[in-house]
Specification:
The structure holds two protein chains of two kinds.
Chain A: H1 21-36, E1 42-43, H2 57-66, E2 72-77, H3 84-96, E3 101-102, E4 111-115, E5 128-132, H4 146-154, H5 159-172, E6 183-185, E7 190-191, E8 210-215, E9 220-224, E10 230-232, E11 265-269, E12 275-279, H6 282-299
Parallel strand pairs in A: 2-3, 2-4, 4-5, 5-8
Antiparallel strand pairs in A: 1-9, 6-7, 6-10, 8-9, 11-12
Helix pairs in contact in A: 1-2
Chain B: H1 9-24, H2 36-42, H3 44-54, H4 59-68, H5 73-84, E1 102-107, H6 140-152, H7 166-172, H8 200-208, H9 212-224, E2 232-246, E3 253-268, E4 282-289, H10 293-312, H11 321-325, H12 330-339, H13 345-370
Antiparallel strand pairs in B: 1-2, 2-3, 3-4
Helix pairs in contact in B: 2-3, 2-4, 3-4, 3-5, 4-5, 8-10, 9-10
The chains are: A alpha/beta, B alpha+beta.
Chain lengths: 300, 371
């Protein structure tokens, strides 16, 4: 019926970084704007990527626009390099970005793309962290209209968000926001820091690494530049609190695998119904395990 | 205490790909692989849907996507969109003249007779939805005879090259407002994000590649009573539109090819006088790639509803540009629905932390009350 429509000759013949150069240039311009106005949600066109909207297409567009040969990329999901989605994203970058190395060691990476976690190991000025974002706007819990939210952000009007926190305290005696904790950047814009746990929110404050947030479906890019003030919303008498990993006697739980007592833990239900706790950051867990066995060898 | 292995994601993905591919070929020795031309022709309405939702006019790639994703319209449209991301934008298409469409069908429900005549063409509208059991066991001979027989019955008289538009007649009579001069360049939704308020061209482009079912559901809410468009179809036409592009050297428009499209224009009741002229009917416009009449009609109704919402403020979901335009894209909505299947261990850990803390506080205060 349509003999004129030829199939592409080679399915692998995509340009470096999959996106066409105009698309990458647009993303880079949006990044510059986002860095210049810390916490401001910069709109951009956001191309469709060959993985689902919601699977990190915003983060991936940032990564593909920034990465070049000589870079070392680490991809994690839930803290793990080997989580199905991290494997998939890493494989895609390997396929479309020849010359880019990938690594699991946090310290070796120049660019880290992550979903739901900030690595436990402190980042450096030479590193760049890209976080995947499902909901870029912290005001969406109190205002569904994007037009109205934009005005509220411009006026720095976060009163309804603070009222929500206050109502939580009245009803539950506790702020019930578990993750995506609203955080004020550089004294003005409040951001949704992506679904990182509250445990990771303090890492945004005065971070040495540039932290970029990409929301592909919602078409927004925003940034926490290095050495920027990041304050989770709280009250003078009700401070911000991170996840509590103490057991019933008040002792900090340890990772069942490496023994670390200073990491965010995954709660795992074993076959017998018994619970165990393990580091969510798999590289951190491996490093702790290696240090422990080195210490055992040294003392033997 | 035991622990859970932190490796294995890569192997699991490989295994799942093999399993889904095995299901595609589950007929085994008795199976015949689908050819792209079979899909494009025998599943032409499916191909149409994928073309329009994918926002890329490439029927063969659409057929390939349908084959690869085993008939899932959302996935197939998604694959076309992702392919589109790798292509640069070469130029801006000038306004195309749909009166020059090579029609296979055109109807008007406003007038019994229209200039150029009604042309019922291929449709199931008046078919009885009874199972045709003869198709269950159709022989190749019977199948091949169908088109041959049809072509024998076709009269020699050629159809005219161009059919006048019904809305032009309404305009000439003063029942519709004259065409407003174009004041803005068309909004390119593939190059600019929707930041509200958006121009009508952005709304039309978004709906043209929207998911059919989503568009239908919101348009239907307006038809049923959450809105009051009450449309009459001035004209619905399906056919091949000659695509005119500027010649790279001379700049003169040349025919670069043709695209099967569906176009629908609905006329709605007039409203209170908001300008100086006499009251006139109002118009809603819908158009999409491929043969997809429900989509074009839904889009035309929503175009009308959104114009009203943009002017007077939305009184129903279907009149709210944000509500409609941010929720009709199949790639966005299916992607987000699917993403909930991904691990959410960390956020769920945080959720449990909040619930347990709140529970223990509630217990403590209950004890306090008892004591």
């Amino acid at each position: 019926m349509n003999p004129g429509y030829e199939l592409p000759l080679d399915e692998a013949a995509y340009s470096f970084g999959f996106l066409d150069e105009y698309a990458k240039r647009e993303v880079r311009r949006a990044i510059l704007k986002a860095v210049s106005i810390p916490g401001y949600q910069t709109p951009y066109a956001s191309r469709e990527m060959p993985m689902g909207r919601g699977f990190g297409t915003g983060g991936l567009q940032l990564t593909l626009s920034l990465i070049g040969p000589g870079d070392t990329l680490k991809v994690i999901d839930q803290g793990s390099d080997d989580s199905v989605n991290a494997v998939n994203l890493r494989h895609f970058v390997e396929l479309t970005c020849p010359g880019v190395d990938t690594a699991e060691r946090t310290a070796e990476a120049t660019l880290i793309q992550s979903r739901h976690r900030i690595p436990e190991a402190p980042l450096t000025e030479e590193q760049l962290l890209v976080l995947q974002v499902p909901y870029p706007d912290p005001l969406v819990v109190v205002e569904p209209s994007e037009g109205k939210r934009k005005i509220m952000h411009g006026e720095g009007d976060y009163s309804r968000l603070l009222t929500k926190l206050y109502e939580d305290i009245v009803q539950f005696d506790e702020i019930t926001i578990s993750h995506r904790y609203p955080t004020r950047i550089n004294g003005h814009y409040v951001i949704d820091p992506s679904p990182i746990p509250r445990y990771d929110v303090p890492r945004l404050h005065q971070s040495r690494a540039l932290i970029l947030f990409g929301a592909g479906r919602e078409k927004r890019i925003y940034a926490v530049p290095p050495y920027t003030v990041a304050e989770p919303l709280a009250f003078e008498d009700v401070p911000f609190r991170t996840e509590d990993f103490r057991e019933e006697h008040g002792n900090r739980r340890a990772c069942a695998r490496c023994g670390a007592k200073d990491s965010f833990l995954d709660e795992i239900i074993l076959d017998g119904g018994e619970k165990t706790y393990q580091c969510s950051d798999s590289d951190y867990c491996n490093q702790q395990l290696a240090m422990r066995s080195a210490a055992v060898e040294a003392s033997a | 205490m035991g622990y859970v292995a932190i490796k294995g994601g890569g192997r699991a993905i490989e295994g799942s790909h093999a399993a889904v591919e095995a299901l595609r070929a589950a007929e085994g020795e008795a199976g015949t692989p689908l050819s792209l031309s079979t899909i494009e022709n025998q599943l032409r309405l499916l191909t149409s849907r994928v073309l329009s939702e994918g926002g890329l006019y490439h029927p063969r790639l659409a057929a390939l996507a349908i084959k690869q994703f085993q008939g899932d319209t959302l996935e197939a449209a998604f694959a076309l969109r992702a392919y589109r991301s790798t292509k640069p934008r070469l130029l801006e298409t000038p306004v195309q003249d749909t009166s020059r469409m090579r029609l296979i069908r055109r109807i008007s429900s406003a007038f019994k007779g229209i200039p150029g005549g009604q042309l019922l063409g291929p449709t199931y509208d008046y078919a009885l939805r009874l199972m045709r059991l003869d198709l269950a066991d159709e022989s190749s001979e019977a199948f091949r005879a169908v088109a041959r027989r049809f072509m024998q019955g076709v009269p020699d008289t050629a159809l005219p090259d161009s059919f006048p538009k019904v809305v032009d007649a309404l305009r000439a009579e003063g029942l519709l407002p004259p065409l407003a001069p174009r004041t803005q360049e068309a909004f390119d939704i593939t190059r600019e994000p929707l930041v509200f308020p958006v121009p009508r061209s952005a709304a039309l482009a978004t709906m043209a590649r929207a998911e059919t079912g989503s568009l239908l559901a919101i348009a239907y809410s307006n038809m049923r009573g959450y809105g009051d468009v009450h449309p009459t179809i001035a004209e619905l036409r399906v056919g091949y539109l000659p695509v005119m592009l500027p010649h790279p050297v001379t700049g003169e428009p040349v025919e670069a090819g043709e695209a099967l499209i569906t176009e629908c224009e609905v006329v709605a009741m007039y409203e209170g006088n908001n300008s100086d002229g006499p009251p006139v009917f109002t118009l809603g416009c819908g158009a999409c790639f491929g043969h997809n009449e429900v989509k074009a009609i839904s889009m035309a109704i929503l175009d009308r509803a959104l114009q009203k919402g943009m002017r007077d403020g939305p009184r129903n979901p279907s009149e709210d540009p944000e509500f409609v335009l941010l929720h009709v894209d199949g790639v966005d909505s299916m992607g987000f629905a699917s993403h909930y299947k991904m691990p959410h261990y960390v956020t769920f850990q945080s959720d449990m932390d909040r619930l347990r803390t709140t529970q223990s506080k509630a217990k403590a205060s209950a004890k306090g009350v008892l004591a």
